[in-house]
Amino acid sequence: MSAAVLSAHNLVKHFRAGGWGAKRKVVRAVDDVSFGIAKGETLGVVGESGCGKSTTARLLVQLLAPDSGSVRFNGRVAGTEIPLREFRRHVQMVFQDSYASLNPRMTMIDAIAFGPRVHGASPGDAGRKARDLLDRVGLDPARFGPRYPHELSGGQRQRVNIARVLAFDPEVLVLDEAVSALDKSVEAQVLNLLLDLKRERGLTYVFISHDLNVVRHISDRVMVMYLGQVAEVGPTSSLYASPRHPYTEALLAAMPSLDPDWRTLVAPLAGDPPNPIDPPTGCRFHTRCSRAFEPCALRRPGDLSVGPHHRAACHLNDSAEAAA
After folding, report:
1. Mean pLDDT score, 100-117
2. 322 pLDDT more than 60
3. CB pairs under 8 A, 24+ apart, for 281-286?
4. Alpha carbons 249 and 147: distance in angstroms, whole number
């Protein structure tokens, strides 16, 4: 964490869900999440819908203020030790909905140039930078620059969104399901573009996705979230080859395969996640885990080391608990 370019420290974010006073209820979207991302690394974040991935992303870029905990950029706390205006020049986000991310009344050139102009660039310099970035993401500035969002395809709009965040010359990009709305051929083109930009500019990525095959392709490390907490985090190769949390095993077993010998005959995970307003005690996964035993319902598991740079929050990895 000390060498991380961007790090989260005990992040907590709860959303009000009704009630007053002692009866007030909250949705525990993110509940004590900590991790770090090294410079030049791609951290993949996976988990079921509702596990807290997108809320974590918005906390990382300070679009949401945490109830407690902090986000640090190069060791400096965002919002206090580093002003948000400066922080957001270094950390930018690409959203899933490429159309909603763009102002429908702004041309593509104006949308990309807007950020540099707000930060003091002259209209001429901002325009030139916008045209250069459009060209870099594979869109002809003369053809696409004067167009409006509704005149572009989803893949083209997402390329514009990537160019728009690159206009700040950021060090970290948080990509929240940035390719999930695209068809597979366009998705591959955008992924290759992201890999090329990472090499050229030394970028660091937080890549959030429900597609485990895409995450394996692009990520150096993977973090698995479940019901607002981190279940497992480790190098991509070791986590996919030898998962150490039952929830990770279930996610990997559900991956689609074209090999008929690897067909899924039995559902690896049954039921829906518990209500985040009233999560289970102890390990939050124990109500759906076929290997749960007594400590799982009583105590939250620690973040245990299970290999080089590989950690999992599961009592099965605690030799003392498993032997009891």
Report:
1. 94
2. no
3. 283/313, 283/314, 283/315, 284/226, 284/227, 284/228, 284/229, 285/226, 285/227, 285/231, 285/245, 285/246, 285/247
4. 46
> Within 13 Å, how many C-alpha atoms sit on residue 290's CB side?
8
Cα–Cα distance, 313 to 13 (Å, whole number)? 20
The pTM score is 0.92
Rounded mean pLDDT, 149-172 = 94
Instruction: Report the 10 Å Cβ neighbour count for 236.
Output: 18
Distance CA 207, CA 196 (A): 15
- SS in 3 state form for the chain? CCCCCEEEEEEEEEEEEECCHHHCEEEEEEEEEEEEECCCCEEEEECCCCCCHHHHHHHHCCCCCCCEEEEEECCEEECCCECHHHHHHHEEEECCCCCCCCCCCCCHHHHHHHHHHHCCCCHHHHHHHHHHHHHHCCCCHHHHCCCCHHHCCHHHHHHHHHHHHHCCCCCEEEEECCCCCCCHHHHHHHHHHHHHHHHHHCCEEEEECCCHHHHHHHCCEEEEEECCEEEEEEEHHHHHHCCCCHHHHHHHHCCCCCCHHHCCCCCCCCCCCCCCCCCCCCCCCHHHCCCCCHHHHHCCCCCEEEECCEEECCHHHCHHHHHC
Q: Which residue has the tokens 């979207």?
A: 29
CATH topology of domain 6-105+148-323: Rossmann fold (3.40.50)
Average pLDDT of the residues in 2-10: 90
Cα 34 off chain centre by: 13
pLDDT at position 233 over 60: yes
